[in-house]
Specification:
The chain is mostly helical. Helix content is 62%, strand content 1%. Strands 1-2 form a two-stranded antiparallel ribbon. Helix 3 (110-128) runs parallel beside helix 6. The radius of gyration is 25 Å and the shape is globular. The model is unreliable at 1-9, 424-434 and 437-446 (pLDDT under 50).
Length: 446
């Protein structure tokens, strides 16, 4: 330090009403993404599975919320224990947190950070459900996500985002969940379907989406909610980083949709609504880990690459015989891997951190870190998820009976159907009864 220059202690952060309000809005946007996912998935299945698909997402809002309050927040963001999990007694039941107590180093209350991260914890197991459409018992699914959130999601969230977590300390960049959310869920989906097997009629019977408008509605709501998911992950709005992430989210999503549609036109001869929706989601997935470290031009490249790779990947299930019903692996696993690794190429060193990718003079160092994060989360989630599915299957059976699957899982599991056209409200107005003609018997002469 040159003589005559003194340093002042860093100012203690104070609660910011603007950042607090911004983060509460972002939390609400992320919450909206789970019902949006339910619509997206619900439209992609056959009519007889619609309600079950909706419920597999909605039940996560109940189960994971309670787990998060009881112990999930403590496991994910408590004081580090061995770089693999956290624990803080004050966070158990959220009972030892002051109303105005701030999240360390930020200007938002701990409660606000906790509820924002809760919404990530809710949607991650819901993502898995798309791979298991048509064939899983609802009670088995509820038990599985209880175990999965506890053993997989909460620890992995600590690895990636918790102070002291081993991937966090290594310098792996995951702005909003490429590893902790999308790779985690995609690998889990693969692990579970390897245990429970394929749907009845896979590769034989047509299994087309029953409502493409519902798919588009879900995709649009996901796109909308994703701005809170991504821009909110900077936990404030003071330095412009969140604004860059907002822009990159829009840019990458548009590029991915165009890339998917272009591939689809060349490969199959048509631009489909399902391709547009899936392409948009692939871009949202890929930019999630990378958008805080790249420029808008980099976001275009990341989105286009992800859209192309994901479009090429969704058909692999037919080649290799794994029944990923709604392309969770093809979109979320492949998209998450793509976006996470491309940080190592497109990080500019001038947005969220000074880490630079290969294309900006940073060499291969950051790419190596990203690869460690990607494949460690993938391997852990794949293996543990398969073991959990095997345990649940042995305990209570994960699949419905074959006859029930063929008849329709909605009636079996929920005693309801998504659409009822049998009542008077089915469209046509009821007509007045017409009296039967009266026959008069007359005597006929012989």
């Amino acid at each position: 330090m040159p003589p005559g220059i003194t340093t002042l202690a860093a100012e203690t952060p104070s609660l910011s009403a603007a950042n607090t309000g911004f983060m509460l809005i972002c939390s609400a946007l992320v919450m909206l993404m789970t019902p949006a996912l339910a619509f997206f998935y619900g439209g992609m299945v056959r009519v007889k599975s619609t309600l079950n698909m909706l419920m597999m997402s909605f039940i996560s809002l109940g189960i994971v919320t309670v787990l998060w309050v009881l112990y999930g927040f403590s496991l994910a963001f408590g004081t580090d224990a061995g770089s693999v999990v956290g624990w803080s007694a004050d966070y158990v039941g959220l009972s030892g947190i002051g109303v105005t107590e701030l999240w360390d180093g930020y200007t938002i209350p701990v409660y606000v950070f906790a509820v924002f991260q809760l919404m990530f914890a809710v949607i991650t197991p819901a993502l898995i459900s798309g791979a298991l459409a048509d064939r899983v018992k609802f009670t088995a699914w509820a038990l599985f996500i209880t175990l999965w959130a506890t053993v997989v999601y909460f620890p992995v969230a600590h690895w990636v985002w918790g102070t002291g977590g081993w991937l966090f300390e290594m310098g792996v960049i995951d702005f909003a969940g490429g590893t902790a959310v999308h790779i985690n869920a995609g690998a889990a989906a693969l692990g579970v379907i390897l245990v429970i097997g394929r749907r009845v009629g896979f590769k034989k019977d047509p299994m087309r989406p029953h409502s493409l408008p519902l798919v588009m509605l879900g995709a649009g709501l996901l796109w909308f909610g994703w701005f809170g998911f991504n821009a909110g992950s900077w936990l404030g709005n003071d330095d412009g980083v969140g604004a860059v992430m907002f822009v990159n989210t829009q840019v990458a999503t548009g590029a991915a949709m165009l890339a998917w549609l272009g591939y689809e036109k060349l490969r199959h001869g048509s631009f489909t609504t399902l391709g547009a929706a899936s392409g948009a989601v692939s871009g949202l997935v890929a930019i999630t880990p990378a958008g805080g470290s790249c420029s808008p031009l980099g976001a275009i490249a990341i989105g286009a690459i992800a859209g192309l790779l994901c479009a090429m990947s969704v058909g692999l299930k037919y080649r290799f015989g794994y029944d990923d019903s709604l392309d969770v692996i093809g979109v979320h696993l492949v998209g998450g891997i793509t976006g996470s690794l491309l940080v190592g190429l497109f990080a500019t060193g001038g947005v969220q951190s000074d880490a630079k990718g290969l294309f900006y003079g940073g060499g291969l160092e950051q790419l190596g870190k990203q690869a460690v994060g990607v494949f460690s989360v993938l391997a852990y989630s794949l293996v543990v998820s398969a073991l959990l599915a095997l345990a649940v299957d042995r305990l209570m059976g994960m699949r419905v009976d074959e006859d029930d699957e063929v008849a329709g899982i909605d009636q079996v599991e929920h005693a309801e159907t998504a659409y009822d056209f049998s009542g008077a409200g089915g469209g046509a107005a009821p007509r007045k009864a017409v009296p039967a003609p009266v026959t008069i018997n007359k005597k006929v002469d012989a």
